[in-house]
Design a protein that fits this description.
Chain A is mainly beta and 859 residues long. Helix content of chain A is 5%, strand content 40%. The longest helix of chain A is centred in the first third of the chain and has 16 residues, at 76-91. Chain B is globular, with a radius of gyration of 15 Å. The chains are: A mainly beta (859), B mainly beta (155). Strand 6 of chain A pairs antiparallel with strand 5 (60-62) of chain B.
Chain lengths: 859, 155
C-alpha cells in the first residue's frame, strides 16, 4: 500500500473536469425504413438474432493479447475486471431478453459461427479512447430485422496516462467508456439524454453507481424486450411539425419527471414519434429539441441516419425551437402527463418554428469542490463535472455552465431553473463571465430547500427567444465525496479503509473489482471505517483503491493525483494443472473439471472460457480454492478448430492459447441440454424426492427401458424417455450439492454434466396466530400477524431474499425468524393483502422451490 | 492543434481517388487512396493508403460512430498517424480532418467538423469536447510551420 504524500493540486477552474458529465439524449438504434419514402414509417432495426444465440446469451471475449503498454499500477487483470463489470451492466437489464456474458479470452481473429462480441486492443489514433459498433448483415432476416453478426469494441493498446488512450483502467471512465462502446456493439447509437449512450461524452452523467439510465434501458428493450415488457412501461406518441405543417425529421422528443430520469426518441422523417419504455409516473413533462449542430453530418460522423430499402438516407430537418408541451418555454407552465404501465398517451403534438442558430448546446456543467472541507463552494480548489450540489448545507451552490469553445455566448440566460423544487437561480445570477482567452461561462446560484432529496436534477435555461434543457445537469448529494485517509492490513487478510464521506452504501473497489465487506461502515461522515476482503490478486500486482458512493461521487474526486494503493503479497504465477476435456464435439455439453495452482477460486468470482462464441459456459461450481467444474455447451453448428482455455479469478488470469479443440459432431451421441430442471415448472431447484426433466438430443434410442441415467455414479429411476426428453426421479435421501449426471441412450453415454442437488424445501408443520392458536378453520384479516412453523429450513437463507412466504402466490412480509427446539423454525409473517374470505394456499419458498401448501382463509 | 501537428506522422493535402474495404481479423477497414497535392509534414509519397475503421465487405457492414466515410474526389487536409502495425489513420478520426472548400480559390477555407466519439486531451489527461474549426489553408500552413520550426509552405 502507499500513503498519500501530496495534497491534491489546486486546479484551474476553467480547465479541469474530473468525471463525466451529462446532458441526456434520446435512445436511438440503427434504423431502416423499408417502405415508401413517404411513409408510413415502421422502423426495422439492426440487432442480434436471439435464436442464433445459446440461451439468448451473446458472449463477450477479450483479446488474449491485452494492451501492450500499461499505465502506472495497471494490469491486464484490472482491464478485464472493468470489461467484465461493463458486460454485467448491459446483462442486468431485466426488461431485455438479451443476455451478455463475459467469457474470458480469445485469440485474435478466432472463428466462430455463433454471433458474439469481441474486445480488442489496438493502436487507436491519438486522441481516441475507444470505438464500438456492430457488424451487421445487409440481408434482411426472415424475422424482420438486420441481424448483427458480431459486435466490436476497440480499446487502446496503451493505458498509460497521460499521453495516449483512456488512461489507467482503474479509473471510472475506463469503465463508463467500456459500457458506452458495448452499447454500440449491441445496436445502440448515440443519444442526447445523459445516459450511457449520450454524446459528446463530456455531457454524460453516468457513474459506477448509475452506469446506465432509463434511456439506455428503453433503448435496449425496444430491440430485445421480453414478451410483454411494455406492459410495465408507458408510451407517449405524437408528431412534431414546423409551423408550415411540414414534419420535423430527427427531432429529439424527451419525456422526464422532475426528479426522475429522461427518456427520449428521435422523430421519424414525417415528424411522428413514439417514446416507449417510460417508467410509470404521474408527473411527466415532455419537450422537443433539435439535434445539436454537428450531430449529423453528410459523412455520418455522428448519428447514422435512417436509410430506405436502397440504403439512401432520410435527412434530418434543420434547427428549430425547443419547447415544452403544449408549446411553452416555461416548464412550470408545461402540461403534466400521467403515464401508466402499459398505457399510451397519444397526440402529444408540437408545432415549432425553424431557427438559424441555437443559443446554447453541447454544454457541460461543473462546480467547485473545496478539498479541505469536502464541500461544494464557489471558490473551491477542484473543479468537478457534472456539477454537484449539497442538499443540506443551507449554503449557496454555484453551478457553472461551460459551453463548447465554438459557441460564443453573447449574454447570460434570462433565467435558469432546476426542476424538482429547487427553482430559479437567484440574483445576481445568471451571470455571464468573460475572461480574455477563455470561453465565456454562465454562473448560476441555487439554494436547495430542505427535503430536496438526492440524485440527478434537470436544468432549464431561458434565453428569451429559446430555451436549453440539460437533463441530469446537476447531482444533489447529502454529503461530500469520499476520501481515504488510511488503508490498514489486518491479520486475517482483510483491509480496513478509514476515511471521510464513507457510509453504509459505500463500495470499495480494488481497480475494477469490488471488495467484499467484512465489517460494514462504522463512524460518522468526518471519520469512518469499512473493512473489506480484497479480491484475489496476482503476483506483483498493485491495485488502486477507490471508494464509490451511491450518489455518483468517488474518492478520485480528491485523490486522483495520488490514490491509495494495495500491493498484493502473492507469489507464483497462476497456472492450470488439469483440464478434463480439452476437446468436445459440436452439439455436446460436458462438465469440464479444472484444477490449478497459485489461485484462489471463490464462488461467483470465476470466469472460465473456451475461446469461441460457439462454446458457452453455463455454470461454474467451485469445489475448492484450486478446483472448479464448468458446464460447457458446444453449439450444434460450431466452427471446428482450436481455441483458448482461460480461467480468470479476481485479478488472476490464466490463458492457454489453442488448448481447446472443437470437433465435428458425433452422430447419435446423446447431448444433455442445460440446465436440467425440476419437472414441476413452479420449482426452481432439483432436490431429493423431486422429479427432474432432462432435455436434449439423441437422449433415447428406444423407450424408457433403453435409457439409463446415473447421478453421482448411482443409477436413478427413469419415468419417461424420448429422443428429446428424459424424466427421472431424484432419490430421497440423496446427498445435496454438485453431482455428475450421465445419460446413456442405449448406444452411447453422454458426457457428464454437473447438476446441483439442493436442499429439500421446508415442510410446514403449523400455521398459528401469535398466541399459538391454529388457524385451521379460522378466518384471518389483512394486517394480521401469523406464525409459520417449519422443519427443514436451511438456516443460511434466513434474512436473505431467497426465503419467502407467499399466500396465493403473493409475497407476504417476513418480520422475523425464530429458532425452535428440534431444528424447527418459526417464521413471523404479516398478511399484507386481502383475499376476499377465500381459502388460499400459504407456501414457504427457499431458493425458488416451495413447501407443500398449507391452506388458510383470509378476508 | 499544435499537439496534433506534433503527434502526426504526416500532414498532407490531397484528394480521395479510390476506396476498398477488407477484414483485418474481425475488423473491417476501408482503405482510401489519397493522391497527395501538398505535403506539410512527413513522407515523400505521392499517394498514401489511409485506413478508416468500418465499411462494407460482401453482405457485412461495420459502422463505428465517429468514423468518417469519404467519397472519391473528396478534398481534405489530412493529419495522419501511422501505427506500429503500419496502418495509417486520421488522427482522432475526425480531429485530423479538414475539408477543403471547393471553388478553386488559391487560399481555400478549411473546416473541421466536431467529432462525436470519445476524445482525449493529451496534455491534461482528460476527455475533451471536440471543436468545429474554420481557417484558411495559408493559416494552417503557417501554424504547422511555426509548430515544427520549419519554413512555411508545403512540398
Amino acid at each position: 500500500m502507499k500513503k498519500r504524500t501530496q495534497l491534491v493540486p489546486v486546479l484551474a477552474a476553467l480547465v479541469l473536469a474530473i468525471l463525466l458529465a451529462s446532458p441526456s439524449r434520446a435512445y436511438y438504434q440503427y434504423v431502416h425504413f423499408l417502405g415508401s419514402r413517404s411513409g408510413p414509417f415502421n422502423p426495422v432495426f439492426e440487432k442480434f438474432d436471439l435464436t442464433a444465440l445459446s440461451n439468448n446469451t451473446v458472449t463477450v471475449f477479450v483479446s488474449d493479447q491485452g494492451p501492450q503498454v500499461y499505465g502506472p499500477n495497471d494490469s491486464f487483470g484490472s482491464v478485464l475486471s472493468q470489461v467484465k463489470d461493463a458486460v454485467g451492466v448491459w446483462n442486468s437489464v431485466s426488461s431485455s431478453a438479451l443476455r451478455l456474458s463475459f467469457a474470458g479470452l480469445e485469440t485474435a481473429g478466432q472463428i466462430s459461427n455463433t454471433p458474439g462480441i469481441d474486445v480488442t486492443f489496438i493502436d487507436l489514433p491519438p486522441g481516441l479512447l475507444g470505438l464500438g459498433g456492430p457488424t451487421t448483415s445487409t440481408v434482411l432476416s426472415p424475422n424482420g430485422f438486420f441481424p448483427i453478426r458480431d459486435g466490436q469494441v476497440m480499446l487502446t493498446t496503451n493505458t498509460a496516462s497521460p499521453g495516449a488512450g483512456l488512461g489507467p483502467s482503474y479509473l471510472e471512465y475506463f469503465f463508463t467508456t467500456a459500457v458506452h462502446e458495448l452499447g454500440h456493439s449491441i445496436g445502440l447509437q448515440h443519444s442526447w439524454t445523459a445516459g450511457a449512450m449520450s454524446s459528446p461524452d463530456v455531457t454524460r452523467n453516468t457513474s459506477r453507481a448509475r452506469p446506465i439510465d432509463a434511456d439506455d434501458v428503453a433503448g435496449i428493450s425496444v430491440l430485445y424486450g421480453k414478451a410483454g415488457w411494455q406492459s410495465n412501461y408507458g408510451t407517449i406518441s405524437g408528431r412534431v411539425t414546423l409551423n408550415t405543417g411540414q414534419g420535423v425529421s430527427m427531432a429529439s422528443v424527451v419525456a422526464l419527471t422532475a426528479t426522475g430520469p429522461a427518456v427520449s426518441t428521435l422523430t421519424n422523417p414525417d415528424g411522428t414519434y413514439t417514446i416507449t419504455g417510460l417508467p410509470p409516473s404521474g408527473g411527466y413533462l415532455l419537450y422537443v429539441h433539435p439535434l445539436p449542430p454537428g450531430s449529423v453530418t453528410s459523412d455520418e460522423l455522428g448519428l447514422r441516419l435512417p436509410v430506405d430499402a436502397n440504403g439512401v438516407s432520410f435527412q434530418n430537418s434543420g434547427l428549430h425551437q425547443t419547447l415544452f408541451y403544449p408549446g411553452v418555454q416555461d416548464p412550470n407552465q408545461a402540461a403534466i402527463l400521467s403515464v401508466g404501465p402499459g398505457a399510451t398517451v397519444i397526440n402529444q403534438n408540437f408545432t415549432v418554428q425553424a431557427r438559424n442558430s441555437l443559443p446554447l448546446y453541447n454544454a457541460q456543467t461543473y462546480c467547485r469542490l473545496m478539498s479541505a472541507t469536502r464541500t461544494y463552494v464557489y471558490n473551491g480548489d477542484v473543479a468537478v463535472t457534472p456539477a454537484f450540489m449539497s442538499n443540506s448545507s443551507g449554503a449557496i451552490d454555484t453551478v457553472i455552465i461551460q459551453p463548447p469553445s465554438y459557441i460564443t455566448l453573447a449574454a447570460a440566460p434570462q433565467s435558469a431553473t432546476i426542476l424538482g423544487g429547487i427553482g430559479n437561480a437567484f440574483a445576481p445570477s445568471p451571470v455571464l463571465y468573460t475572461t480574455p482567452g477563455l470561453t465565456p461561462e454562465i454562473a448560476l446560484n441555487f439554494l436547495a430547500p430542505l427535503g430536496a432529496g438526492v440524485g440527478p436534477r434537470h436544468l432549464v435555461m431561458n434565453f428569451g427567444s429559446d430555451i436549453y434543457v440539460m437533463p441530469d445537469a446537476v447531482n444533489l448529494v447529502a454529503q461530500g465525496p469520499p476520501e481515504i485517509n488510511s488503508v490498514t492490513p489486518n491479520p486475517d487478510g482483510s483491509v480496513t479503509i478509514q476515511g471521510a464521506g464513507l457510509n453504509a452504501a459505500s463500495q470499495i473497489f480494488f481497480d475494477g473489482l469490488q471488495a467484499a465487506v467484512e465489517n460494514p461502515f462504522s463512524g460518522v461522515d468526518a471519520a469512518g471505517t469499512i473493512t473489506v476482503v480484497p479480491p484475489n490478486g496476482a503476483a506483483g500486482q498493485v491495485s488502486t483503491i477507490t471508494v464509490y458512493g451511491p450518489d455518483g461521487q468517488n474518492s478520485m474526486f480528491l485523490q486522483l493525483q495520488n490514490p491509495f494503493t494495495w500491493a498484493y503479497n502473492v507469489s507464483g504465477a497462476p497456472q492450470l494443472n488439469t483440464v478434463s476435456f480439452t476437446a468436445l464435439p459440436a452439439a455436446s455439453s460436458a462438465a469440464v473439471d479444472i484444477t490449478a495452482s497459485n489461485v484462489n477460486f471463490v464462488n461467483g468470482q470465476v470466469t472460465v472460457g473456451f475461446g469461441s462464441d460457439d462454446v458457452t459456459v453455463r455454470q461454474i461450481f467451485v469445489l475448492s480454492p484450486t478446483h472448479i467444474v464448468a458446464n460447457a455447451v458446444v453449439a450444434p453448428g460450431a466452427s471446428i478448430g482450436a481455441a483458448d482455455v482461460s480461467v480468470i479469478a479476481g485479478f488472476q488470469v490464466i490463458d492457454q492459447p489453442g488448448a481447446f479443440q472443437t470437433q465435428v459432431a458425433r452422430p447419435g451421441f446423446p447431448d444433455v441440454g442445460l440446465p436440467v430442471v425440476n419437472a414441476d415448472p413452479t420449482q426452481a431447484t432439483i432436490y431429493p424426492g423431486s422429479n427432474a426433466s432432462i432435455f436434449g438430443t439423441n437422449l433415447a434410442n428406444g423407450g424408457a427401458s433403453s435409457v439409463q441415467v446415473t447421478l453421482g455414479g448411482v443409477s436413478i429411476p427413469v419415468s419417461f424417455a424420448s429422443t428429446g426428453q428424459v424424466n427421472v426421479s431424484i432419490p430421497s435421501p440423496f446427498p445435496t450439492g454438485p453431482s455428475l449426471l450421465v445419460v446413456n441412450n442405449g448406444a452411447f453415454s453422454s458426457f457428464p454434466v454437473m447438476v446441483n442437488i439442493a436442499n429439500v424445501p421446508p415442510t410446514i408443520l403449523a400455521v398459528t396466530n401469535p398466541a399459538g392458536g391454529s388457524l385451521a378453520g379460522i378466518t384471518s384479516n389483512p394486517g394480521d400477524l401469523i406464525d409459520v412453523v417449519v422443519a427443514g429450513l436451511d438456516p443460511t437463507t434466513i434474512g436473505t431474499p431467497s426465503l419467502q412466504v407467499t399466500v396465493s402466490g403473493v409475497a407476504m412480509g417476513i418480520l422475523g425468524v425464530n429458532s425452535l427446539p428440534g431444528g424447527q423454525y418459526q417464521i413471523q409473517v404479516v398478511l399484507t393483502q386481502s383475499f376476499g374470505g377465500a381459502q388460499v394456499p400459504l407456501s414457504v419458498w427457499v431458493n425458488g422451490s416451495s413447501s407443500q401448501p398449507f391452506n388458510i382463509t383470509v378476508r | 492543434m499544435n499537439d496534433m501537428i506534433v503527434k502526426s506522422t504526416a500532414i498532407v493535402h490531397g484528394k480521395v481517388t479510390s476506396a476498398a474495404a477488407s477484414f483485418t481479423n474481425k475488423i473491417i477497414y476501408t482503405h482510401y487512396n489519397i493522391q497527395v497535392s501538398e505535403r506539410f509534414k512527413g513522407g515523400s509519397q505521392n499517394s498514401i493508403d489511409v485506413v478508416v475503421p468500418g465499411g462494407t465487405v460482401g453482405t457485412l457492414r461495420q459502422w463505428f460512430p465517429g468514423a468518417p466515410t469519404f467519397n472519391v474526389g473528396d478534398d481534405y487536409v489530412f493529419f495522419l498517424w501511422t501505427s506500429r502495425a503500419g496502418l495509417t489513420q486520421v488522427i482522432g478520426l475526425t480531429q485530423g480532418l479538414f475539408a477543403v472548400a471547393q471553388g478553386g480559390a488559391s487560399d481555400p477555407v478549411l473546416t473541421r467538423a466536431a467529432s462525436h466519439e470519445t476524445m482525449f486531451d493529451h496534455s491534461t489527461g482528460r476527455q475533451v469536447k471536440e471543436q468545429t474549426l474554420t481557417m484558411k489553408l495559408s493559416q494552417l500552413r503557417a501554424q504547422i510551420a511555426a509548430t515544427l520550426g520549419t519554413p512555411a509552405g508545403g512540398q
